[in-house]
Write a structure and sequence with these properties.
By secondary structure, the chain is α+β, with helices and mostly antiparallel strands. The protein has helices spanning about 1-15, 30-35, 40-60, 155-160, 165-180, 185-190, 195-210, 230-300, 305-315, and strands at about 60-65, 70-75, 75-80, 85-90, 95-100, 105-110, 110-115, 120-125, 135, 140-145, 145-150, 215-220. The longest helix has about 70 residues, at about 230-300.
Length: about 325
């Protein structure tokens, strides 16, 4: 009986020590002993620390190129602009760097699109031709393509004053060009492209400065201006009629220039002939007068002799 009781107590102790499912949990002493005997491997830790140091160093040290400036933001707020060279900043996530190319010349094309290929550069029509389709001052329709070249003169305004500065540049450029073209005839738009480029550049720069875009327009290049294909034939007819009109006017002026000098020469010749005739008549009259005076003087001196001489001269 005593043996059975001891056996039953031992089974009860084993049952209490077992966890759910009959698994015996580890003892606390065993866990502590295992922790004391455990040794960390130093290799991975060193690699992680070196990688972290390299990351921090690369995020804190930066260089700015000779044609750039660096714009630094602290938690999204502008703090400074750095010049070309080596600089330091707070790690990534605290200070953010944006490089702006202030010496680079950017380009925007209107009315066409330049396509770069491996062997050549091709020029094709833009999908949206409405930006180059304009109404002239004499109510003609013209296709006026052009190129705007610009630099960034104020990086702060360029980055923070306007949300999408490129779209604004294109909108203002199109509006400026329409304003200038609308004050000229179709012939002036075709033949005076340089004047249009200069005036539109002045108008566009004024609008960009007013909007604080930080952009400086360097040049506006006008490409070949033409008329849309649907009205090309009518435009050619009008142009031909205008040329014929100018030709007739030129011919009339040429005939005028030939006739007037000839008429003036004839008039001068007639005047000179009349003057010569008048002078001859005057000279003859003066000669007759002198002759009659001389005869009269002779007659007074010897009347009979003079009468007889005159009578004999008349008989001859």
């Amino acid at each position: 009986m005593s043996w059975d009781r001891e056996k039953l107590q031992q089974q009860n102790r084993q049952h209490r020590q077992q966890g759910p499912g009959g698994v015996v949990p580890p003892q606390m002493d065993d866990l502590m002993e295992k922790l004391k005997n455990f040794k960390f491997s130093s290799g991975p830790v060193i690699i992680i620390m070196i990688a972290a140091a390299i990351f921090l160093a690369t995020s804190m040290i930066y260089t700015v190129g000779v044609d750039e400036v660096g714009v630094v933001q602290l938690f999204g707020k502008y703090v400074r602009t750095t010049t070309p060279g080596l600089h330091f900043k707070l790690p990534a996530g605290i200070e953010r760097l944006t490089k702006v190319r202030v010496r680079h010349v950017y380009k925007e094309e209107f009315g066409f699109k330049t396509v770069m290929t491996t062997s050549s550069k091709l020029t094709s029509e833009n999908e949206n031709m409405n930006e180059s389709l304009m109404l002239t001052g004499d109510l003609n329709v013209a296709l006026v393509p052009w190129i705007v070249q610009y630099k960034i003169k104020d990086p702060y305004n360029y980055l923070f004053k306007v949300e999408n500065v490129t779209d604004l540049l294109r909108d203002l450029s199109e509006a400026s060009m329409r304003l200038v073209v609308g004050d000229r005839s179709i012939d002036e738009v075709i033949s005076k492209r340089e004047e249009i480029a200069i005036e539109s550049r002045e108008v566009l720069q004024k609008e960009l400065d007013h909007a604080e875009t930080g952009i400086l327009i360097t040049t506006i290049e006008m490409k070949k201006t033409n008329v849309p294909v649907p009205v090309q034939s009518a435009f050619n007819e009008v142009n031909q009629a205008t040329q014929e009109k100018e030709k007739m006017i030129y011919q009339a002026k040429e005939d005028y220039n030939k006739a007037i000098p000839a008429a003036k020469g004839e008039a001068e010749r007639t005047i000179r002939a009349a003057e010569g005739y008048a002078m001859d008549r005057v000279n003859r009259a003066e000669g007759d007068e002198k002759r009659f005076v001389a005869l009269y003087e002779e007659y007074v001196k010897a009347q009979d002799v003079t009468k007889r001489r005159i009578y004999l001269e008349m008989l001859k």
